[in-house]
Amino acid sequence: MERQEDIAIRMQKAVQAGEIPGMVLALGDRHGTRMEAGFGARSLGGAEAMAPDSVFWIASMTKAITGVAAMMLVEAGKLSLDAPANTLVPEIGALGVLEGFDEAGQPKMRPAKRPITLRHLLTHTSGYAYDMWSSDIARFRKATGTPAVGTCRNAALALPLLFDPGEHWSYGIGIDWAGKMIEAATGETLGVHLQRVIFEPLGMVDTSFKLHPDQRARLAAMHGRGADGALSVIPFEVPQEPEFETGGGGLYGTARDYLTFARMILNGGKHGDIRLLKAVTIADMARDHIAPLSVRPMISAVPSATRDADFFPGMANGWGLTFLVNRKPSPQGRSAGGLAWAGLGNTYYWIDHGRGTAGIFLSQILPFFDPHAIALFRDFESLVNAD
Known about the structure:
Elements: H1 2-16, E1 22-29, E2 33-40, E3 56-57, H2 62-75, E4 97-101, E5 107-110, H3 118-123, H4 135-144, H5 174-186, H6 190-202, H7 213-216, E6 223-225, E7 231-233, E8 252-253, H8 255-266, E9 270-271, E10 274-275, H9 279-286, E11 317-319, E12 324-326, E13 338-343, E14 347-352, E15 357-362, E16 365-366, H10 371-384
Parallel strand pairs: 6-16
Antiparallel strand pairs: 1-2, 1-15, 3-8, 4-5, 6-7, 9-10, 11-12, 12-13, 13-14, 14-15
Helix pairs in contact: 1-10, 2-5, 2-6
């Protein structure tokens, strides 16, 4: 209880100081929820308070959910981690590897040395990248008129690879393609499939690609932080009638729902009487798949979308099947082998099998890796782990 009071004091001070409009925290262990609380307002200067059922764009926190759905299909024999992905979705890897640009500014391509697999897609070793962390992909998009991934148009996924599959780590659109593989294997849209196999069984009533009226009534506003540090409400919404539902970043949800999902991971694929995955599959998802490669600091190529992001400065980290894996104990006290990731609007989570905890921190601020938001997330975990 004392730690919860310390956490509340830290968050309230940040809101009162104007560092952040508001946030929702949720904390759980293998047995249940230990804390859920909102601080501040859903919109800067607004009257509606943040609450455990406030709705957020959780962005790339979607990736772990898509990964679980993919691994359920691997268990069922409908997908393979190591078969060529283009046998199911021919467009995957179709453009080949980007080698540079010619004198006219047009991209120069070559065939990849090997096909992309689902394992490559889930571990960000496929060669795909996001333009916000790759100036080459940003240049390719501009030269070819390729739409941004956030448009949710199918053409947005027609990007080249930066390297041959398996040879480097680069954060990118791979899990959007994994979502396309799920659709091809099941004949369902990704949203329908996730609702049937994950959200309904776990009781995640507020997680979806499309907002329904009740969710809109509880929606947290998106805020932009200007160069001077000031915050303002900015218009933002994931396309509600998309050509494809983005398995890499399209979901809306609540801290309460996501804690349920994280506790399922913490409990080896089981939530109450419901088992989504075998314990051995969860263990495989949680192990580091990319050694001797390491997750590299993500250097911004689009400052309006993201700042430079380095979760553990000076530490080499791995990647599992959709999770960041810290190879050593973290400065916040997370056990070696802990799992985590984040969403572009400054949403964050951790799953610590060693300590048996999972924590969720949701805010709505752009650019990503906001210094105040990441400091608060780190302080949240540090206070939870304080001796």
